[in-house]
Amino acid sequence: MPERLRVLAGDCQVTEHGDRSRSYRGRVVVLIKPDDTTLVHDADGYQPVAWLTRPESVVVEGDGAGFSVTARDGGRRLRVVSTEATASRALPVTVAGVPVGTCPADGGALVRSHGDVVCLDCERRWGLPAGASVTDATCDDCGLPKIRVERGEPFHLCLDPACDPMEAAVSERFDRVWDCPDCEGSLAVEFAPGRVYLACENPDCETTLSIPSGVVVDECDCGLPIFETAAGRSCLDGSCQIAGHTAAKTRE
Ligand SMILES: [Zn+2]
Ligand SMILES: [Zn+2]
Ligand SMILES: [Zn+2]
Ligand SMILES: [Zn+2]
């Protein structure tokens, strides 16, 4: 079930108490968001006349003839009392995000919002790996959009990690491909919730290196790959001195 936005309207007395105390009177619309953020809008501009963002409490009282809204947050209080009510409704609302496809389960719109993809109908939510983009292709198995994510090279995976785990794809390609910079061991692909990284296979060695969001473009003199990321080129080993030396030489 989508969350509800309460909409109340009428000729109202609006009172603010707190660092400033003011009173207004007018035909206004009161919006109470699912997180209790309370906004009082009049006819003018985009800005509310009065508001409280995520207050500690909101109490709505009233009947068909009138209503009162009291929002409190610490020492601040916003109170709206109708002298004549014209509307009181609860409307379904969801997040709004960039459309990225269609939910195969119910045909609902999929939108990208705050690093997640959300279905506006069933409200299922899939987290995106850092740096991932959603593509126009769809998964042959489940019908969800495919994502493109760079971890050494571009991988095209199902949005649902249960369908097409990034760990398996990266592991298949890069497990024990590079040597540990600190011992004779190789670097194995390991994973923790939401990220994949490299760890030395030697149980006595504690070396771990994160795999940046980028592609391998070269090999460093130390033997490890050089990644091209949004931030530029660098050795997989962030502390590698050779890479810094090479970069300095290129600039001369
Ligand atoms: Zn859905
Ligand atoms: Zn799939
Ligand atoms: Zn090692
Ligand atoms: Zn290096």
Report what the structure shows:
Helix content is 8%, strand content 52%. The N and C termini lie far apart (62 Å). It is elongated and about 80 Å long. It has 252 residues and is mainly β. The C terminus is likely disordered. It folds into 3 domains: 91 residues, Protein Yojf, Chain: A, CATH 2.70.180; 67 residues, no CATH class; 81 residues, no CATH class. β15 and β16 form a beta hairpin. Bound molecules: zinc ion (4 copies). The site of one zinc ion has 8 residues, from loops.
Sum this structure up briefly.
The protein is mainly beta and 252 residues long.
Map the helices and strands.
Layout: E1 3-17, E2 22-32, E3 38-41, E4 50-52, E5 57-63, E6 66-73, E7 76-93, E8 98-102, E9 109-113, E10 116-119, E11 125-127, E12 133-138, E13 145-150, E14 154-158, H1 166-174, E15 187-192, E16 195-200, E17 208-210, E18 214-219, E19 225-229, E20 232-235, H2 241-251
Antiparallel strand pairs: 1-2, 1-7, 2-3, 3-4, 5-6, 6-7, 8-9, 9-10, 10-11, 12-13, 13-14, 15-16, 16-17, 18-19, 19-20
The structure holds zinc ion (4 copies).
CATH-level-2 architecture of the largest domain? Distorted Sandwich
Q: Compute the number of structural domains.
A: 3
Q: Can you count the helices?
A: 2
Radius of gyration: 27 Å
CATH class of the largest domain: Mainly Beta
Largest sheet: 7 strands, antiparallel
C-alpha geometry: elongated
Structural class: mainly beta
| N-to-C SSE string, H for helix and E for strand | EEEEEEEEEEEEEEHEEEEEEH
- How much of the sequence lies in strands comes to over 45%
* Distinct ligand kinds: zinc ion
Q: State the share of residues found in helices, binned by percent.
A: under 10%
Per DSSP E runs of 2 or more residues, the count of β-strands stands at 20
Please give the alpha-carbon distance between the first and last residues: 62 Å
Mean pLDDT: 92
Strand order of the largest sheet: 4-3-2-1-7-6-5
